Each structure stands twice: as C-alpha cells, then as structure tokens.
C-alpha cells in the first residue's frame, strides 16, 4: 500500500466535508469529492497566513463568523480563468445586436461573473466598435463574488502578452502603456463599467433591469441544477423581451426550457418574451 505524502497541515475527511458545505451554502459552489487535494492546496496559504497548524483550527475561525476570513476563504476557492474575447462568436452576436438597437437609447449589459475583467472589457470594446465611438450609449455592470478579482478588474491593467493577442488596432485604440510595462484600458472604457460584488445565490441582488444582454458564462458549471434553475428564474424578468442571455460553451439551459430557448451558439432568448417584467429590482 502507498503511504500518503506527509502534509504540512492536518486535513481530514470531516474537515473537507465541512468546507464543501460552507462554500456550497455561501456561494452555491458544489465541490466534487475529487477536489480534496485542490481544496488543500488553495487553503493552505490561508492557514500559513494565520499561523494555524490544522484545518480543524481554520474551520473554527470560519465558524466563529469572521467575515473577512470568510471572504478570503471564498476568494481562495473560486476559479477565475478568463480571457479577452473568450468565445469570440458571442461578441459578434452582441455587436450585431447593439448595431440593430442603436436607436433604442442607452443599452444595458450585465456581466454577472466578470472575474478579472477581461470579459466586461471585451463587452466595452465591442460596444465602442459597434458605435465607432469611445463613448457609446452603453452601460455595463460587471459583478463577481470574488473581491480579489474585482480589484484587478477595476484597475484594468493586463500583461502585454495577453493584450497583444487583441491585435495592434485594438491595442492602440483601447489601451495605454502603464509604467509597469503592462497595458491599461483607457479611461473611457473603464468609465463605461461599474464593478461591484454580487453573489448570484444571495437572496437580493439589488440590481436594476431590464438588460439587453446578460453574460453568465462559465460559472453555472460550478452550481448544481437546482441552484442554476433558481438563478435562471431570476434572470428571466431582468431581460428585455428581445434581450439575450449568453452562457459558456459547456453550459446548456435544457432544464430551463420554459424560461429560455436557444437562439444558437450558446446564446439564449426568452421562451415567453411577453412575460418579462421591465425595471424590476431583484
Ligand atoms: C471561470 S470564471 C468565468 C469568468 C468569465 N465569465 C468567463 O467566462 O471568462 C468564474 C467566475 O465566477 C465567479 N463566481 C463563482 N461563484 C459565484 C457566485 N456565487 N456569484 C458570483 N460569482 C461567482 C468566480 O469568482 C469567478 O470569477
């Protein structure tokens, strides 16, 4: 029999089950039993920072209701992988929508799991290109549960390797060189987006629709089907009758067929547009 490798911190199955329950109850994130090592790796730095010896001691800190530690715990367990113009076809569809609705006044977009900001800035660039202006009539709200990524997103500073992939024309038009050698989004683009913390499973989102588009990409995969359905039920009345919901390439809304129907390429429209209620606060 193989001897398990010696670990810096004591982490038993009961600790893992408690952590699974905590992150599920707080963020809706359903960690599979296979994530034992991932959880250890992600949280070990928190134990080190707090000078604790065991996960049992760390759980006591969380169970005491330490809000700041709960935030850092959550930030450690979220997965934030993203990139500019990820699933590029979505931005072509959005650009066409914005052009077709250019007479409609201000257009409102919600990026509901915005991570480090590449996704909402891709929305902003798409809007600037659709209207050929750095001040298009488009407002973007970008939200995420993870407070670390929101800070990165607000700063709008990205590595040259990442930004260069957008091509010279976009780099020249939408970025300035930052003293660190990285690139920063120009002020006009940063001003188009309001970033704020929002937990998709919180009972009150305090967000005002109706939206022309809701981007909810590559986050539903972390939730179980009942949680997904509850969120989708709350998205539906926040969309304009002609508005579109964008989900990730590996996500589908078959279980919410009475709410959304596929328009194509993981873009959904309301199944019953007449029933959407405008200007609701959820
Ligand atoms: C893999 S990233 C996806 C980023 C981006 N939407 C994309 O597709 O490139 C998932 C994001 O969802 C966020 N997230 C996880 N649970 C959440 C929740 N309950 N409410 C809001 N955001 C959440 C994470 O913090 C993370 O930034």
From TrEMBL:
GO biological processes: methylation
One Pfam match: CheR
Keywords tagged on the record: Methyltransferase, S-adenosyl-L-methionine, Transferase
S-adenosyl-L-methionine in keyword set: yes
EC number of this enzyme: 2.1.1.80
Binding site for S-adenosyl-L-methionine: 80, 82, 86, 119, 144, 199-200, 217-218
SUPFAM superfamilies: Chemotaxis receptor methyltransferase CheR, N-terminal domain (SSF47757), S-adenosyl-L-methionine-dependent methyltransferases (SSF53335)
Catalytic activity reported: L-glutamyl-[protein] + S-adenosyl-L-methionine = [protein]-L-glutamate 5-O-methyl ester + S-adenosyl-L-homocysteine
UniProt entry tagged with the keyword Methyltransferase: yes
Domain named CheR-type methyltransferase: residues: 4-273
GO molecular function: protein-glutamate O-methyltransferase activity
EC class name: transferase
Function as written in the Swiss-Prot or TrEMBL entry: Methylation of the membrane-bound methyl-accepting chemotaxis proteins (MCP) to form gamma-glutamyl methyl ester residues in MCP.
Protein name (Swiss-Prot/TrEMBL): Chemotaxis protein methyltransferase
